[in-house]
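User: Quick one: structure for sequence A, then sequence B.

Assistant: Sequence A:
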Amino acid sequence: MEKITTKGIKKLFSLTRTKIRLAKEAKTEYTKPKPLPLIKLLSGKDIDTVLQAEEYLDQLKEKIDYADNKSAAKTVFELMDIIEGVKYKFEPLEFMVNVDYEKLSEIEGKAKEKQMPVNLLLMTEKERGGLNLFVGYDQPKNTIFLSRVPTTLAYFINFAFNSKYFSDGLKLKNINVILGHRTLILNAVSFAIGDFGANSINETTK
């Protein structure tokens, strides 16, 4: 694993703790949804409350093995799940997920019909051929805006793990993840999606 990825995961831990603190300050008691779906799927744990999320965060920090890519990637997904699950009372709308289950089902249907992958564009400057979900600012044409922030990809990842077209068990397929801008957290998220099977493309090395 690259050093920047390790740093990105550590930054994601810090961001998760901040979001939990803000959730507690906003008097948020429960996660949304409950239980948190990726944690339930990947670890079999029921996380229903902010306090449970905080306790689980501590457990993740204790047991992560940065030398084990699968352990690290799984932790990234679970941290994303916590962030998205606790922030609903205080986060500005632009930093929330902009697509719902119906829209994701529509995207899946189009991808199946045309037998093409979905491109997850992480702050790229241009769209790619096919179906494009964009994260970031300065949205390119012919893309579907997911959110300003990459942790919202937790919604798509959960959808993908429950889709026969986008996954085979816990192995992602028919998904490209394109890293267009190199930040610590973007790098960690891109790494995790790629480690779980998506085709990973790094435009920042060009």
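Sequence B:
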Amino acid sequence: MPGLADSYNVPVRTGDEPVAEGATLRDFWRWMGSDLVTNTMRGTFAEFLVALAVGTAGGVREEWASHDVEAEGGVKIEVKTSAYLQYWSQEALSTPTFDIAPKKAWDPDTGRYSGEQKRWSNVYVFCLHHHQDKLTLEPLDLSQWTFFVLATARLDAERGEQKSIGLGGLQELGAEQVSFEGIAEAVREAARPSRNQRVS
């Protein structure tokens, strides 16, 4: 059928587009995305923060890309998120862990997954929402976040097929701990070939 073989060209929307009488796309965004504490929305918000930090948040998020964010110069970034607090009732703080499992990549041009399973980015940014009081929990407050930046080659060399990692593991690998303002420089540094060597 005509057009089925083409990838969809996602428009950049403003939020002012009408949906029904008295409602706009912005109303849907508010309804869908106000809760930034659930795992799904927190992860998406963290991707936005990283894109914002490296100066590439002006486009549209690509759901099925092999990596989450692309910085200037073509540096591919994988963004992972964890937190001590969850949406649901807790008896204790959660232990932060991050997914680092190698994965197959989806190719929108072919409509198929790649045969190869690996880590597709150049750099990982691990985003920890470190705040520990639900009464004052606010994901929009960037002082409640800590970021850890690590070259993907370090993970490949030192952790191989390992599927998850905690804060201690990131420290062992020498991940650079930064605030939001330090993400861009840390990503540039981690992407340098000299930082992609095996940890001694």
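Residues 36-195 form one domain. The mean pLDDT is 92.

User: Thanks, that's what I needed.
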